Amino acid sequence: MKPTLGFSIAAALVPLMLAAEAAAPALAGLEYSRSGELKFPERYREWVFLSSGVGMTYGPAAAANAGRPKMFDNVYVTPESYRAFLESGKWPDKTQFVLEIRSSESIGSINKGGSFQTDLSAIEMNVKDSSSPNGEWAFYDFPVSGGKPNGYGKPFPKTASCFQCHGANTAVENTFVQFYPTLYEVALNKGTVKVNFEKLPANTTQVATTVTSDPWAKAEALLDGLAAHSPSANSVSEASLNQLGHRLMQTGKAATAVKLLEWSGQQYPKSVNLQDSLADAYMAAGDKARATTATEKALKMAEADTALDPARRKAVGEAAAKRLKTSH
Ligand code: HEC
After folding, report:
1. Would the CB of 91 count as within 6 Å of ligand 1?
2. Spans of all domains in the chain
3. pLDDT tens, residue order, the chain (328 aa)
4. Which CATH number fits domain 38-190: 3.50.70.20, 1.10.10.10, 1.20.1440.230, 3.90.180.10?
């Protein structure tokens, strides 16, 4: 009884499995219609996810969204191209990117202050294909209706803004690799970033690594460069510098903390927090005289700063009292 049943179930399943296989769209094949339209890769969500941005929409999609919450965009690339890029820092032929633009919502379920992604608003593709009827690099639009993209996408003409902006601002070939964090590092290491590409400002981790491990002169040059060219970069914000200063003190690098916080104090001369931290750093470095002078300055600054949070003011006062007591 049993073997017969097993056999009959298996026999019944074979045609079903074959049918499912035939119906599943190819993961990454390129298919064009006779008029040169590109077939939509329905399984792009199984590709490699490169990054997500908020409010990074440009051109027609941005204009259509004017006055509404900033949209999300998600970028996917064909898996074999991703693996090739890790090896070479370049895109192989037949590389396909899907840019998915989704609406943003902030009220729903447990979410309070954040934003999450909802319905599909637009889908575009960027494709490298040397045998394409539309040129080696081509952009496609798949109009979305009822939340679903069209089955075929029309190529954009070479005069479209896509070519202009991607041509002028991308880090690698025709693609915005500078915004795909894992790949940007690969491209920098492999030296495949375009020669005229203006590098992104050093991020918080890069600044912390240089300040912690390199001679101060090198760290200072990096910080000076950031202050001159990207003063609003997160890596040189008051909060980031203060946090790094504390981390240096906690890891026994008080002398470096002093240098960093002296530099930071010149950058943010009104910052009570940085002045308070500098006093701490002098103390940690065993320089009691400077710790006293810096503490007195922090107290004066706290007094003059009418916008200072009362809890902060109290904390600065208490830290000062403790320092002055031990330094005399
Ligand atoms: C003003 C500049 C600008 C214009 C114009 C522009 N893009 Fe982009 N595009 C970007 C940026 C920046 C990214 C990086 C991803 C993001 O949005 O975060 C990107 C990413 C993409 C990607 C993902 C793959 C890649 O190339 O990095 C696709 C696909 C894409 N754009 C399609 C288009 C199409 C189609 C058009 C024309 C209708 C267009 N873009 C016009 C700036 C632009």
Report:
1. no
2. 38-190, 204-327
3. 444 444 455 455 545 544 444 444 445 689 999 999 999 999 999 999 999 999 887 766 677 777 788 999 999 999 999 999 999 999 999 999 999 999 998 888 888 888 999 999 999 999 999 999 999 999 999 999 999 999 999 999 999 999 999 999 999 999 999 999 999 999 999 999 999 999 999 999 999 999 999 999 999 999 999 999 999 999 999 999 999 999 999 999 999 999 999 999 999 999 999 999 999 999 999 999 999 999 999 999 999 999 999 999 999 999 999 999 875 5
4. 3.50.70.20
pTM for this predicted structure: 0.83
Mutate to test the pocket of ligand 1, among 49, 72, 165, 183 (most ligand atoms within 8 A of CB): 165
Distance in Å, CA 97 to ligand 1 centroid: 10
Instruction: Give the whole-angstrom CA distance, residue 74 versus residue 125.
Output: 12
For ligand 1, whether the C-beta of 139 sits within 6 Å is yes
> What superfamily would CATH give domain 204-327?
Tetratricopeptide repeat domain (1.25.40.10)
Task: Give, for ligand 1, the residue of 124, 127, 134 to mutate: max count of ligand atoms closer than 8 Å to Cβ.
Answer: 124
Token pair, residue 244, equals 């790094």
Q: Where are the alpha helices (DSSP H) in the chain?
A: 2-23, 59-64, 79-88, 161-169, 181-190, 204-213, 216-229, 238-250, 254-267, 272-284, 288-304, 310-327
